[in-house]
DNA sequence: ATATTTAAGAAAATATTTTTCATATTCATA
DNA sequence: TATGAATATGAAAAATATTTTCTTAAATAT
């Protein structure tokens, strides 16, 4: 099942009654949904145009056309890698390997399909302009934050990540106007991460979120929202693919950043690489 | 090139002057074209909305939205270029996104292709049998190690990762026979990681390596060798894909481990998930 | 039981797309 | 070269589609 449909299914429970009905219709007839106009969609799902419009906004799309475009793109993807596989007891090693490969590849391409390039562009602009960048996240998302920090530091950007969530807030509280705070959370509901982001926002920092698709507190609070698609519910087995998808987005951000200031950053990257190498050599081995 | 773009190029010669100009714009900026409204498209291509509308009908689409939908769907299909893409200065955001997607997907499937299932099986056996598991790695590979540690701890396995490489050796020196030491290093040459692995080996631990493909000191020293493929290119820009590939292998190991002892581990996973949730709830939000 | 909040559709306001229509341009022919 | 027919094109009108506002109904809290 597609990342967007999966996201709809996951958040269906939190929706209003009519939106649930609409969600149901979309889940059952995704192809019709992508092709019909708002009136048709409203009629067929037994709702109203207003509800359809709100439904799309609530899912964090820019509107119906945006929803259509992105779902359409996802549905178009070749059915070779199409269905996410679940992993259960006593699977053969071979089937496990295949399932994981499929899930990872799928979540990377789903994430790419629904990526909002304008939001990416904005994010890159903000990151470039920032004097300082703070990263927030815990557990699996903390690892993604740490990864991003490493990359940023390597090109000489002052980026901070504290594994301790109190320190995350402490750090947020010293941000200044124009700095950037990046909140990473699969669910988009992690309390600690949300708090740190709010604090950063109060300080006047530009806030950026990287969460799963759909509506959630963290992305709602953020100025710039990025989404990583993933499949599974509830983060139990799920954070494997979601983490890969998040790292994928981090790589895109980072590469775009480097690409924009190629002449500044690439020598930096090269230098940090060489310095580490040299330091290690001198230690005598 | 996509079928629709190809068709446009082929019939471009027979078009009216303004439609040719529009066709040119679409050929040069297909992604902008699918996203913009008719007014934007008319403006950017230096034509009028009437021309845009007619253009679509002339190409036998039902209208602009139909054209958008179908071109969008075509563009969405991942181009299956088999070669890794390099990222250079001033790339368009879109080409960056495509290149990264391609590289990541490619490195995941390459890694899967060359994975030695017997080695994986041995690794899983050793990990299951271990009283304690030590993980070694620095920088990007340290993140992979940390990720693996988190996963193992979640199913109740005593796994250690120290970001400090002296502590890695310290930890290694207290391993015992039958414990497992996992060394993660893209190059396979990282001094600190190598030292920790050697130390673990001396203590009688089963040693496991996760490195790039080919011969390198760390994998030579290890009892069980796993390889993650990636771009060659010396680790500077390459470590994006290599890290994804390494995490992919980690996921395979972890899933295989869980799958073998499903009834023990899955409740553990579930419990650790619920405990975190409960603890967070109690904090009152 | 009453106030307050929330949900949802009708209708109004916007925005988008298509069609019509008037004009400009090209091309063939005398 | 002049003339008329055919075609191309954009402005504006008409038709559609989408979003927002406003009102009422329903749910929830006080």
Automatic annotation (TrEMBL), chains A, B:
GO MF annotations, alphabetized: carbohydrate derivative binding; DNA binding; DNA-binding transcription factor activity
Domain named SIS: residues:
123-263
Domain of life of the organism encoding this protein = Bacteria
Q: Which residues form the HTH rpiR-type domain?
A: 2-78
Q: Which UniProt keywords apply?
A: DNA-binding, Transcription, Transcription regulation
Any Pfam family the entry gives: SIS
Question: For this chain's UniProt record, which GO biological process terms are given?
Answer: carbohydrate derivative metabolic process
* Annotated InterPro entries: Homeodomain-like_sf, HTH_RpiR, RpiR-like, RpiR-like_SIS, SIS_dom, SIS_dom_sf, WH-like_DNA-bd_sf
User: What is this protein's record name?
Assistant: SIS domain-containing protein
């Amino acid at each position: 099942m597609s990342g967007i449909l999966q996201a709809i299914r996951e958040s269906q429970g939190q929706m209003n009654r009519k939106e649930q009905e609409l969600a149901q219709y979309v889940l059952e007839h995704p192809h019709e949904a992508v092709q019909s106009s708002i009136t048709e969609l409203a009629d067929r799902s037994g709702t109203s145009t207003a509800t359809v419009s709100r439904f799309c906004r609530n899912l964090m799309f820019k509107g119906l056309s945006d929803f259509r475009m992105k779902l359409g793109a996802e549905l178009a993807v070749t059915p070779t890698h199409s269905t996410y596989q679940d992993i259960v007891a006593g699977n053969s090693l071979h089937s496990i390997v295949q399932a994981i490969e499929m899930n990872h590849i799928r979540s990377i391409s789903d994430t790419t399909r629904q990526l909002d390039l304008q939001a990416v562009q904005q994010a890159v602009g903000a990151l470039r302009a920032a004097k300082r960048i703070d990263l927030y996240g815990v557990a699996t998302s903390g690892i993604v934050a740490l990864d991003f920090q490493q990359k940023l530091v390597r090109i000489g950007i002052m980026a901070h990540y504290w594994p301790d969530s109190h320190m995350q807030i402490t750090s947020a509280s010293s941000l200044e106007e124009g700095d950037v705070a990046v909140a990473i959370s699969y669910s988009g509901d992690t309390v600690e991460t949300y708090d740190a982001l709010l604090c950063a926002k109060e300080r006047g920092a530009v806030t950026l979120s990287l969460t799963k698709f759909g509506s959630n507190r963290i992305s709602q609070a953020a100025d710039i929202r990025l989404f990583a698609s993933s499949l599974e519910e509830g983060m139990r087995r799920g954070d494997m693919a979601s983490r890969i998808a998040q790292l994928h987005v981090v790589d895109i951000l980072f590469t775009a950043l480097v690409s924009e200031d190629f002449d500044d950053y690439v020598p930096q990257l090269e230098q940090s690489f060489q310095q580490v190498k040299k330091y290690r050599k001198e230690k005598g081995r």
